[in-house]
Amino acid sequence: MQIxxxxxxxxxxxxxxxxxxxxxxxxxxxxxxxxxxxGIGSLGLIAIISVFMGGVITIQGAYNFTNPLIPIYxxxxxxxxxxxxxxxxxxxxxILAGKVGxxxxxxxxxxxxxxxxxxxxxxxxxxxxxxxxxxxxxxxxINPFLxxxxxxxxxxxxxxxxxxxxxxxxxxxxxxxxTLFVPFNIIYSLTKTIAFAYIITSVAAYQGYYIKGGAxxxxxxxxxxxVYNSVLILITNLVITKLMLL
Amino acid sequence: xxxxxxxHKTFGDRKVVEDISFTFQTGKTNLIIGESGSGKTTLLKxxxxxxxxxxxxxxxxxxxxxxxxxxxxxxxxxxxGMLFQGGALFDSLTLEDNVKFPLDMFTRMSEAEKxxxxxxxxxxxxxxxxxKLYPAELSGGMKKRAALARAIANSPQYLFxxxxxxxxxxxxxxxxxxxxKDLTQEFNITTVVITHDMNSVMEIGQHILYIYKGxxxxxxxxxxxxxxxxxxxxxxxxxxxxxxQLRPKS
Lengths: 246, 250
Prior knowledge:
The complex is a heterodimer. Chain A is built from nine helices and no strands. By secondary structure, chain A is an all-alpha fold. Chain B is α/β, with parallel strands linked by helices. Chain B folds into two domains: 173 residues, P-loop containing nucleotide triphosphate hydrolases (Rossmann fold), CATH 3.40.50; 71 residues, no CATH class. Chain B is globular and about 60 Å long.
């Protein structure tokens, strides 16, 4: 029964989040702030992870491609497909669920226990809309850019490691990443990214918004947000993949 | 004027507020006093709509707040200022931006007008030239004063203060009390203060509601309270050994 309560309360919260803002200009300013905070602030982490994971994928490919019938350029092709289809949209979103999700849950949770949310309500402000909508909108806008950057850096990491380790030549890798390219895969990947961005921000905000208690509860809400976000991302990944690729 | 009529609230099987009716008068500092756990904060939260009463009504100058829809309640709340126990200042904003926040949200003032209003409010609470400080850089007393400045920024008709003196030294507490009283009289607003600090009761208790175990037990003013014959109230007023020595013999 508890799960029905949470689902119902989540949708009621979302109804408040997407109701008409008091002042569009203030909300717009908040969205810009959140784009910087949630998006640009995660760029460094995403860049490092993408470059190294791209390199690892290429090395693992070279390690497994022992059959002489498989052309060397398949290394570039395999790295590209792994990164575009799964690594960048899903794994990076899982990482963002940890970084951004826990940040949102603890920020909103702290505002709840220090009565800052009550203060907004007393002023006559829709606290759910003011605090959550800019985060959701910002993530849904900026995450596709982050994931696109991640794709480029992942493929670049694979190129560097492939060439540096002698697994392939520069020409073979570049030929591989250009071979059998399906533009629809990018649409599929970015669709997933936008859905994941909504899940990460809204679920984390829900966890923080309904906190009762003290600092201990803020920590628990932060952990819960990462766990629920991870599970929901994996389920959504499966559903979207089935709907769009099969 | 704020009227509460036959307010009831139960949490589980515990009656927290039981059939309280009272009128909070305009231009006066109205105090709600009582022991910890007596239902003061629950009553205040029901008055501002953070908790819904099981029964009863809250009327703001005749407007029935409890029967309004969410949008109408929000409009009434724009006339309310509230000083929370911990201040509830927004951590990410400077003092100036905290005070300016309600003006940004609800007024069409120019930036210059907003700045003038912010400085006026900060001067009122003796925090001039502290505009750029963040809440984390303020002392407890300064936080309370800053929160008071934010509460009055939008010229409220009703001011609520939840234990404004908790955690403050007696001297700073007196400053906060004096500010609340001055603001109430100067702007002719309806002020409701929750406290269990007897210094506050004596300083600013122009109209007092004493709650005991969730019920209205006594009402009067700071002169009458010293001469009350109500046993529970006397035990509350003269709680310490020091005050017991000053208790009038009856």
